[in-house]
């Protein structure tokens, strides 16, 4: 089973960025943990701070992979382009968020992406990614 995690802007700073919200683990460290926890999954990872690069990656993998775990970060709340890309592809997408966006500022309560995804996992810290992986299995 081929699954890719796609992370959006500022998630390259996990470990350093607002640790009271996002924790103190780097994503690279967590990703190695995930690979060890799910050895049967062919796991890939892509991160970009650039909206168009995220859209390019979604298009590239979106007709051949078995699943996409997408944390579009701030673009969740702004990007019609990413929402359209998710709608255009055939690979199922699970939207994840590390923090509980509904317990935060109101602008984080709306997601352009949610209507086009298979499911949403929000607020379980880094574990949100493991729960998404589990649901694909
Ligand atoms: C986030 C929540 C977003 O509102 C925020 O812009 C992020 C991270 C999360 O994983 O909790 O960058 O997607």
UniProtKB/TrEMBL annotation:
Major enzyme class: lyase
Family, as annotated: Belongs to the type-II 3-dehydroquinase family.
Gene coding for it: aroQ
Name of the protein in question: 3-dehydroquinate dehydratase
Record InterPro entries: DHquinase_II (IPR001874), DHquinase_II_CS (IPR018509), DHquinase_II_sf (IPR036441)
Assembly mode: Homododecamer.
Transition state stabilizer, annotated site positions: 17
Organism name: Flavobacterium solisilvae
Purpose: Catalyzes a trans-dehydration via an enolate intermediate.
Pathway terms, separated by semicolons: Metabolic intermediate biosynthesis; chorismate biosynthesis; chorismate from D-erythrose 4-phosphate and phosphoenolpyruvate: step 3/7
Catalytic activity: 3-dehydroquinate = 3-dehydroshikimate + H2O
């Amino acid at each position: 089973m081929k699954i890719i995690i796609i992370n959006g802007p500022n998630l390259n700073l996990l470990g350093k960025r607002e640790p009271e919200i996002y924790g103190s683990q780097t994503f690279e460290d967590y990703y190695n943990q995930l690979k060890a926890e799910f050895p049967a999954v062919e796991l890939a990872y892509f991160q970009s701070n650039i909206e168009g690069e995220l859209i390019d990656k979604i298009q590239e993998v979106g007709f051949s992979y078995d699943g996409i775990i997408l944390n579009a970060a701030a673009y969740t709340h702004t990007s019609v382009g990413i929402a359209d890309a998710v709608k255009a592809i055939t690979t199922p997408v699970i939207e994840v968020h590390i923090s509980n966006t509904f317990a935060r500022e109101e602008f984080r309560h709306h997601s352009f992406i949610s209507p086009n995804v298979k499911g949403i996992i929000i607020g379980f810290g880094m574990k949100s990614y493991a729960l998404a992986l589990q649901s694909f299995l």
